[in-house]
Design a protein that fits this description.
With 138 residues, the protein is α+β, with helices and mostly antiparallel strands. The chain folds into two domains: 1-43 and 84-138, no CATH class; 44-83, no CATH class. 25% of the residues lie in helices and 33% in strands. The chain contains three helices and seven strands. The protein has a five-stranded antiparallel beta sheet. A two-stranded antiparallel ribbon has the order 2-3. The protein is elongated and about 60 Å long.
Length: 138
Amino acid sequence: MSVEKKIRKNGLVQLSSIGVERAERLVRYNSGDAPVIWGKSKFTQDDYEAWTADRQRQIEETKAAGGNTFSITHRDDGESRLSPTSTNVKIHPGKVYQVLRARIVGHWNYREYKGQTLILDPITGREVYVPRDFVEAV
């Protein structure tokens, strides 16, 4: 009889073999990079302010150079650019993360993503969405 640990709220997880394989595949051609996967974290007010400041800086530099700022403020189809709703967070193999929600549907980039686990990244302090099959209970 095998006792398989389950992913539970307040439990601990790390990347599963599927997650580690995915991380190694993502950096296979970048020899200097450490294997990681990218989790998604919701955009905070600080992220939004940094994004807005960077965009204003780009507009000022383009105006000073005599360029057209339309491509900075609008997409190719003429619609104005919306701010992102998420940011990427590195999830490292071998590190242990606390589970905040074992089963959750993530919402970012104006879409719904089923089959997620919400974990706490101890390095950044962010809540990060990771696909459930990429993590396993410790």
